[in-house]
Design a protein that fits this description.
Length: 325
Amino acid sequence: MGCEINGLGRARKTRSGIDYGCEELGRLKSVLMHTPGEELSLLNELNYKHWLYDKVPEISGYIKEHRNYQELLESNGVRVYELEDYVDENTGLIKKMPNLTFLHDTAVISGKGAILSRMRPPAREKEEVVVKEALNNLGIPILSEFNGDEGFFEGCLLLSKETVFVADTERHTYPFIREFVSNILKEFSEVIYVRVPKARRYMHPDTVFNRIREDLALAYLPAFEESCLFTEDSGEKIDFKAFMREKGMEIISVSDSEQSRLACSFVPLESGTIFHYDTALDQKTRKDLENEGIEIISFHPDALLAGGGSLRCHTLRLCRRKIKN
Ligand SMILES: NC(=O)NCCC[C@H](N)C(=O)O
């Protein structure tokens, strides 16, 4: 079975369901994206910081680059589902949410269903409500969501069918992390928890860590203030790099300057091939990756940089599949 909606075009919703799940680092089959629109005109010189932008975007360039990125994904065989095609009830909210285009932060898709975030108010409040509707209309069940009022949790990373990576960032409240860890351990066997400095540059887990291949990742280790491993019946401090090495994963460290250019935040097309901003990595890291046989499909951001997000942030991965021999 493929990941596409059988016989239906992009403009039609379906209840028939699509294939989903991204734990395994297989070939990227489908993603959910939101082409930004009139919500970008909410931004001006007085409020762009409130809206968590680094500057006021140049709107036509921003939208054009977003479209170019979608085309790049499609030309590599990735099916792009457009959020708006799967939203009826919450269309009014979309126009009020200039950060909705950063769909990556709103949910993570496992084979058991979506792990829905709770976005931090005020700038990102209720984005998950829109995404939940779209996922529902795509036929992807919700595996986990937050019901309490006080708190937020902007995402985690799935490292395998067993392991979830959670970072305690400025976009996560500790009680929500505790609730999440205890609930998700019913579905996954371990959670790696990493405390990072509460600063915008480390706002989400993918700002400090991301896997490239089953045995290789990029990380900015100076931000790992404390790392712990939680299982259903234990919790212990770990040395993150040594722990990952024991699991067979080597880490290539990025520099302070690279981290600030979102070096750890890229989209694997498949194990060993990544889509990445051409501005994110220094020559040395490129060389190290080349020596490892990693292929980088480069994308040049200009207007897109105003939003403070990477290609990964614009991309909610829905389905990955390993090619069967
Ligand atoms: N994962 C990410 O790093 N997402 C980028 C989100 C950018 C957005 N303007 C924000 O600050 O929330």
